[in-house]
Structure formats: structure tokens, C-alpha cells
Amino acid sequence: MTEHTVSFVVGRLGDLIVQEAFLLSGVTDKVQQMLTEMKRMKTRIINITNSWETYCIKNITKASATSKSQIQRRLRETNPIMEDDNFIGLDKSIDILLKELMEERRLCVVSIVGIGGLGKTTLDKKVYNHIDVKRDFNCHAWVFISQKFERKTLLYQISKQFGYEADQSMEESDLVVKLRTFLENKKYFLVLDDTWSEDAWSILKVAFPNGKRGSKVLLTTRSMIVATFADPWNLYNEPCCLSKEESWELL
Ligand SMILES: Nc1ncnc2c1ncn2[C@@H]1O[C@H](COP(=O)(O)OP(=O)(O)O)[C@@H](O)[C@H]1O
Ligand SMILES: [Mg+2]
């Protein structure tokens, strides 16, 4: 009986070992195939990397990612030029904003807050180019802030537009001091369009003194937090919604 059982178990084990060996030989084949494939891929990668050097291409991934974000920024960048003047229903918003901007108070930040596409930049442009603003302020500047910005670049852009030609080799801290001094006795008007971060004005403001009474910063943002952070004591103007008649006119 025991002999029979042992011989049965040994027989089954033998079958299992044969099966395992069969399966393992299948796996070995597969592993061999994968190894060959990986060697082929490695050779291909080495060839591609060598061809970069042949064609003088360096850091291709990094370069393309940077230029892509730069191109996207360029495409979104705004400026104060009025290309079109067929705007409807802006008069009320312009009046409210102008009243706010003409107040002869200490330097303050006036914010236009509203969702994307509401007409904030359009309102900015209208006000920036308004005859009263052109006449009443000694110098004007418009910068596009967006999500990513560099303080030094922005300060150069602003200085230039205000009429102070800063030396490109100047240290950032010197630029801050020079710009402050330049603006000390001026009534200036600065637009910070499309501001996303509450830090933007915080890190820029060191370069902006109170100036002459009535100097203003006009900031546009989608975020009430950004606007509140910039100046909590101010009115926030959203471009007014169109009336029924104005909406038909727009269509
Ligand atoms: N009052 C208006 N009448 C007609 N078109 C307008 C008006 N306001 C804005 N637009 C148009 O709507 C689009 C979005 O306006 P924009 O000022 O860029 O919005 P935001 O800055 O709030 O994202 C632009 O093409 C602009 O010309
Ligand atoms: Mg805008």
C-alpha cells in the first residue's frame, strides 16, 4: 500500500516537473526575446543620441519645453493698443473706473475682477488710452503679468515705459532704488494686466513710492483674493453685464 502510494506520488511529481520544465522553457524563450528587444532599443537610443551631436542638437527636451511656454506666453500677452473700437455697454464701467482713478489720494491699487473673457483687458485699454488719464498722469506703463513672471524683467519694462532708461547691466536692487527715486515726484499710472498671484504686487511694490498724490496702479485679475491682497481698502470693479438691448446689439 505504502509502496503504491509512494510510486503514485513520485509519478505525479514527475509529471509536474515535466510540466514545470515545459513552462520554464516557454518563459526562457520569452525572456530571451525581451532581452533581444531591449538590446535593439538600446542600440537605437544610442544611435539617436549620437545623431543629436552630429546635427548639433543639445538638450532637446528642455529647450522645446521652455520655448513652448514662451510661445504660449507671447500669444496671450496683452498691450494697450486699441485694435478695435466696436465695444458695447462699456461706458458705465469706464465712468466708475475713471472716477476711482482720478481721486487725488495716496497711491492705491484699483482692481478689476472677473472671470476670463469678461472684458477686463478691454476695459483696461479703454481707461489707459482715455484722454483724461493721458493728460492727468505724468507717466504711464502697461505690463502683462500672467502666471509666470520675472521681477527684474517687469521692472525694466516698466522703467522704460515710464521714461527711465535703465542700464541693462544694472543689478536688480539698484534698479529698484533708481526707479523709486525716478518716481518720487511723479504722478504715475501703472497697469498690471492678467495678474494670477497674490505675490505679484507684493514683490513689485518696493520699487513704487507713493509718488505725487493720485498715482494709481490698475490691476486685473480673475481672483478676488489677488485683488484683496493688493489693496483691501479699494473698490473692485467688475465690467458691468450688458443690458438686454446691448446684448442684441452685440449679436
Ligand atoms: N463690451 C464689449 N463689447 C464687445 N466685445 C467685447 C467687449 N468686452 C470685451 N469684448 C471682447 O471679448 C473678448 C475678451 O475680452 P477681454 O477684455 O480680453 O477679457 P478678459 O481680459 O476679461 O479675459 C475680446 O475679444 C474683446 O474684444
Ligand atoms: Mg485679460
TrEMBL record:
Biological process annotations from GO: defense response
InterPro entries, A to Z: NB-ARC, P-loop_NTPase
UniProt entry keywords in alphabetical sequence: Plant defense
Molecular function GO terms recorded: ADP binding
Domain of life, source organism: Eukaryota
Residues of the NB-ARC domain: 91-251
PANTHER family per UniProt: PLANT BROAD-SPECTRUM MILDEW RESISTANCE PROTEIN RPW8, TIR-NBS TYPE DISEASE RESISTANCE PROTEIN-RELATED
Protein's name according to its UniProt entry: NB-ARC domain-containing protein
Native species: Kingdonia uniflora
Lineage: Eukaryota, Viridiplantae, Streptophyta, Embryophyta, Tracheophyta
